[in-house]
Design a protein that fits this description.
The protein is an all-alpha fold and 437 residues long. The chain has 23 helices and no strands. α5 packs parallel to α15 and α11 packs antiparallel against α23. The longest helix has 34 residues. It is globular, with a radius of gyration of 22 Å. The two termini are 34 Å apart.
């Protein structure tokens, strides 16, 4: 067993290497290999092969490429732009006008894509041309898109929940159930933020209110375009919550449903499928490489007794769970300024999870907390991935405008963090209802 000093040095080394720009999988493998070589010997070094196999043979992890493929097919399937314009018919009347559509469309797309980056790219592509014809403040437009994209992992089926579940052996079904209410609350907080801005500074967000409203019959007719994403969501999440299908089986059913949607919109072609498969293979390979390195790091840390050491330190501090969560929140807010989401999640979880376990914090609740922290990092300048995705789709102006637009929504996510910490039943009520305590 190693002591607190060695643990601190290893953790600092890992963060320093990631800060220098090395790939997170390389960093975790290098740190694990160094620890195994110095303290455990050749047997632990050569165990990487077994850990690689163990990390990738988990049946639940098969759902990662399936959910990625589901999102890719829907993006290319022709339903998202029609969904966006259908939502705008009803949300445009709220103070802030069309900005609410960015949030609503992102929430609905997040319920079937499971990726914040995919949500940012998709909604940006649809929304930005629409706003060019209107006089909204460009920073607020960009910020609302970034905020909506941050729902991509929080609203199930988020891929981050699968990664967390695989690393901590927490039920993916419970994690998905736990993310529903916080995801809806976060959506409402974003929309309330837009309303407050519209009331306080109407010149920034009231451009859409003077537009002619389409006839009711036309608005009702366009509601059919909301059926496709809702149907896919019901197939995926309904199968999980009713126990009729596992998380992986539900993902496969979701892919089958998305193919039907693409066929109905006459977008189901060999070329479209080829592009979807290529994108899925690329993202899956990157994710699984990181997971394999993370599992090996967990293995080495377990042999070194890090889990027991950290748990003992936490018990000796006698810190309340609420105070501990606030300390971790501050830590992740600072890390989110420098690190991308997945490196931050898998790089810190092997150290942090034993701490929360020792403090008696529910792992399902902490999964929601971790995903929320990761989503905040996605809109944290200067490395927030979704900010650069949005700017890349935009293709004009400066990234500083995107940074400035996210500030009010960044504050909203801090408020959401406080609500989650002090009202944990927000995350635990639905999984306890669906699966029992």
């Amino acid at each position: 067993m190693i002591g607190a000093f060695e643990i601190g040095v290893g953790f600092a080394l890992m963060l320093a290497l990631m800060f220098l720009g090395l790939h997170v999988a390389v960093v975790m493998f290098a740190v694990a290999l160094l620890g195994a070589s110095l303290y455990l010997g050749k047997s632990a070094v050569f165990a990487f092969g077994n850990q690689l196999w163990g990390a990738t043979e988990d049946y639940v992890l098969l759902s990662i490429p399936l959910y990625i493929l589901l999102g890719e097919i829907l993006v290319r399937g022709g339903s998202t732009d029609k969904m966006y314009h259908s939502l705008s018919d009803w949300l445009n009347k709220l103070p802030g006008g069309l900005l609410h559509t960015n949030i609503g469309a992102s929430a609905l797309f997040s319920a079937v894509s499971g990726s914040s980056v995919a949500t940012a790219a998709t909604i940006s592509t649809i929304a930005l041309p629409t706003f060019k014809k209107r006089s909204y403040d460009v920073r607020l437009v960009l910020g609302s898109i970034a905020a909506g994209a941050s729902l991509g992992n929080l609203i199930p089926p988020g891929i981050a929940f699968l990664v967390y579940g695989a690393m901590t052996e927490t039920s993916a079904g419970r994690l998905y159930a736990a993310g529903v209410i916080p995801g809806l609350v976060m959506t409402l907080i974003f929309m309330l933020t837009i309303m407050v801005i519209a009331w306080a500074r109407p010149q920034l967000a009231s451009a859409g209110r003077a537009e002619a409203e389409p006839p009711l019959a036309e608005k009702l007719g366009r509601l059919k375009h909301l059926l496709a994403p809702l149907a896919v969501f019901l197939v995926v999440m309904g199968g999980i919550y009713t126990g009729w299908a596992t998380v992986t089986e539900s993902a496969a059913l979701g892919v089958a449903s998305s193919l039907v949607v693409a066929a109905l919109y006459r977008k189901l072609t060999v070329r479209m499928l080829h592009e979807s498969f290529r994108a899925t293979a690329r993202l899956t390979a990157m994710s699984m490489l990181i997971l394999a390195a993370a599992f090996y790091l967990n293995f080495v840390l377990g042999l070194l007794g890090v889990t027991q050491s950290v748990a003992g330190m936490v018990k000796s501090l006698d810190v309340s769970p609420v105070m501990l969560l606030w300390v971790l929140a501050v830590m992740y807010l600072l890390l989110g300024v420098f690190f991308e989401t997945l490196p931050m999640l898998v790089g810190t979880l092997p150290i942090v999870f034993p701490i929360i376990s020792a403090a008696g914090i529910d792992p399902v609740f902490f999964g929601v907390f971790m995903v929320l922290m990761c989503e905040i990092s996605l809109i944290s300048p200067p490395v927030g991935m979704t900010l650069y995705v949005i700017q890349g789709v935009r293709g004009e102006g400066t990234i500083n405008e995107v940074f400035q637009g996210t500030l009010p929504f960044f504050v909203s996510m801090i408020v959401m963090t406080g609500l989650l910490i002090h009202v944990p039943q927000m995350a635990l009520w639905l999984p306890n209802l669906a699966f029992g305590k």
